[in-house]
Request: fold
Amino acid sequence: MASLKNIKLKILSYKKTGTVTHAMEAVSAVKMRKAQERALGGRAYAAAALSVLERLSGTADVARHPLMQERAGKTAVIVITSDKGLAGSLNSNVIRRAQTLVGGYDKKDVLIYAFGRRGGDFFASRGFTMGLNKTNVSDDIAESEVQEVTKDIIRRDDITSAFVVYQNFISTFEQAPTVHQIIPIKPETMKRIVEGIRPVRGRYAPQQSEAAARPAAYTIEPDADSVLAELLPRLLNIAVFHALLESKASEHSARMVAMKSATDKAKEKAKDFTRVFNKVRQAAITREVSEITSGIEAMK
Reply:
């Protein structure tokens, strides 16, 4: 009977685990849809800012701006992970991609800016110089909150290049660790970032009218420096902000899939133990019937 009791406890344990993971799956599904909508909904804003940069990129004033030039100096790496686990290989893939990136640099020439506890703890424990480390990042984070990181990178004269490493949302079952160089700012890179957050079809799909022509010259008011001082940091901020939104959508998607897998596994194990329980109980009943029959025969 003790064996039957232990098996029954295991069955109840797996069923309770399945109930919890199923609830977490449902919550992650709702969060994933909201995060995806935010990423796709902001594409028009990113595309418009990119269009302005493309139109100005042929002018000499843009080419001379420090954020557009290749220079020697330190490299900032913005690593976007989650604060929590239970998301499959989401964080480990991003960290591995960032490790590959920083492996080509001397440690003293790299500054790590982390969104999410997992990435920040990983690089801090390995002796990397940390810039800002933001944890408990809300799903409803605003673009203005990202400016704290981008402004810190821009104000430092020793940082001359920057990369953002994050998990790009492709579909519910597919996310890809992605790296983009965001400093020096290049129209080609910004275009790839915008293309990475837009679907092929649907209301968020790109329109033909988004293609930007490059005129021979622009009259800029009040002056080119003032316009670029506002435009280029904003473009940098948009790139990081959308990487964060993509990462959020990927996180909830990966967690939803992981929890679905855990729910299915819990149901499967509960079914297996139920089968074992029935076999053990049947064997016990058969044994008891055999003992009773043997007793009756002995009494005769």
